[in-house]
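hey can u check if this looks right to u? its 370 residues, i copy pasted from the old doc so theres a chance i mangled smth
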Amino acid sequence: MRIETKKAHFTSPLYLESGRILEPYDIVYETYGELNKDKSNVVLVCHALSGSHHAAGLYPGDRKPGWWDKLIGDGKAIDTRKYFVICSNSIGSCFGSTGPMSPQYPSQEPYRLNFPVITIKDMVKAQKQLLSSLGIHEVHTIIGGSMGGMQALQFGVDYPHFAKSIIALAATYATRPWAIAFNKVAIEAIRRDPRFKNGNYNKDDFKEHGLDGLAIGRIAGHISYLSPASMEKKFGRAYVATDGLFELFGRYEVERYMEYNTSNFARIFDPLSYLYIVKAINTFNLARGYGSLYDAISRVEAKINLISFKGDMLFFPQEMEHLAKMLQRLNKKYSYYEIDSDYGHDAFLVEIEKFEDLIRDMLKEVDESK
């Protein structure tokens, strides 16, 4: 599989949903496979909150591959021998695309809290600009999970003729209070950490020790990404062997797991980026700008393929089912599958074997309709 990582620089303004402008801006993106002559084999992959453009394959020195490596590659469900796959890092993120710690032109000082609030719609508009700059004005399929699924759905509404097929996994039509409440824990934990300094920290301040507030907030995130059943199966009531049961801060294995994973995350993810992306997730609403969800979905021309997970405690299957029923009422092309899983929200990243054949069939359906 051929992998290339590039950065696109844009000097034309990106007009944001808030009314503000981002200018200039960069987008880092990764491609897999080869673009065919008529540019009809493009599959756009959209990442989730903590993801990046590195969706598959290994960089030299990597301990683990890209976040959807089990799904993308030669002979895999998104077969890079057939498809030219593009995954870009969302604006606002901290893996190369313009975000709050990027220099605010013409100064070399970071934006920090001067960075504009961005939305899912803005992320999609920026990706559309990237693809246009590459001479790609129509794609085979757009696919993503969680926040990536939100982007895929937003593409289907905002640019009805851009993709032949949309595949959204573990997503929703509008972020509900339950998910916003989990995100509030992270927001407040970051803001109240003295080392956050109201965003006036230096870029590398947390590389060695991380930011405690982000680590604590990420614990809330991890709880929402799993499910009670998956926690029971993975940890049960196992206690850390080296900790005493009657030590006040002795830990169960589930506590140690949360500590380990979140402390690592807090060293590699920028806290301001986390705040901005969480804001984008919280404000996601397909209906905004169109009057109602009915009016928004009325615009859709691509086939919308929805995949939910039974044990998802963040974006519940009922949310995707509601969207499916509306697509049905409007006589739109759609499919809806609820995967039998007790893993939780992160099943879209972990239990690939449960839906990879569905993805393969959805892509094949587009091929056969040409």
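The first strand starts at residue 3 and ends at 10.
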